[in-house]
Amino acid sequence: MYTVVLVEDEKDLCNLIKIYLERENYQVICFDEGSKAIQYIGKKADLWILDIMLKDDVSGYDVIKKIRENDENVPVIFTSARDQELDKILGLELGSDDYLTKPFSTKELILRVNNIIKRVYKKSNIKKIEYEEYLIDLEKRIVTSKKKEIKLTTLEFDLLILFLQNKTKCFTREEILNSVWGSDYFGTDRVVDDAIRRLRKKMPKLNLKAVYGYGYRLS
């Protein structure tokens, strides 16, 4: 059974999300304060759902920084009542894998949780991939360059694997969304461009080409 840690200070929303997650057979640990969530870090957590604004003076941003100090790979979904692009960018840059703006449907959140869990914890017979100066360990979900680790979010890692396992194939943005975010993703395809931009920045030797009017391919 996978464990989801839910950090949400709206009691009714927290209870509703917990009910739906438990119906999907997840174990759910709930916190309404960032300080309490930070104290939990290091214990079992397969996925975190973090609200940005919490009832104490510790924000979701503070919590994810502490999470990443302890575990670079555990997936994190941010939620927020504020619909500001800066919030989304900052959340992604700090290492979140997805972002939902309130109000959102509980069904949408559950679909995103299911998609991320399937991507991150599915098994593969291939253990390692080499590309240019990069070594990608699929089992440990670690990318290294000259023995130095490159820190990727779970979503960035899955995006990388999609291209590495389909070299020279050109993907449309919709195909990338369906493969990495899942066919039930409700957002726009702009998230693809943002994720690829971050991936290129972290892995400059990655020869990801934009195909004008179509999508992307790895050369």
Give the topology, please.
Blueprint (H helix, E strand, L loop, with lengths): L2 E5 L3 H13 L3 E5 L2 H7 L6 E5 L8 H11 L5 E5 L4 H9 L4 E4 L4 H16 L6 E4 L2 E4 L4 E4 L2 E3 L3 H11 L5 E3 H9 L8 H13 L5 E4 L3 E4 L1
Parallel strand pairs: 1-2, 1-3, 3-4, 4-5
Antiparallel strand pairs: 6-7, 7-8, 8-9, 10-12, 11-12
Helix pairs in contact: 1-5, 2-3, 6-7, 6-8
What would you say this structure looks like, in words?
A five-stranded parallel sheet has the order 2-1-3-4-5, with helices on both faces. A four-stranded antiparallel sheet has the order 6-7-8-9, with no helix packed on it. Helix 1 (11-23) packs across helix 5, helix 2 runs parallel beside helix 3 and helix 6 (154-164) packs across helix 8 (190-202). The mean pLDDT is 86. With 219 residues, the chain is an alpha/beta fold. The chain has helices at 11-23, 34-40, 60-70, 85-93, 106-121, 154-164, 173-181, 190-202, and strands spanning 3-7, 27-31, 47-51, 76-80, 98-101, 128-131, 134-137, 142-145, 148-150, 170-172, 208-211, 215-218. The chain folds into two domains: 3-121, Rossmann fold, CATH 3.40.50; 128-218, Winged helix-like DNA-binding domain superfamily/Winged helix DNA-binding domain (Arc Repressor Mutant, subunit A, Orthogonal Bundle), CATH 1.10.10. The N and C termini lie far apart (39 Å).
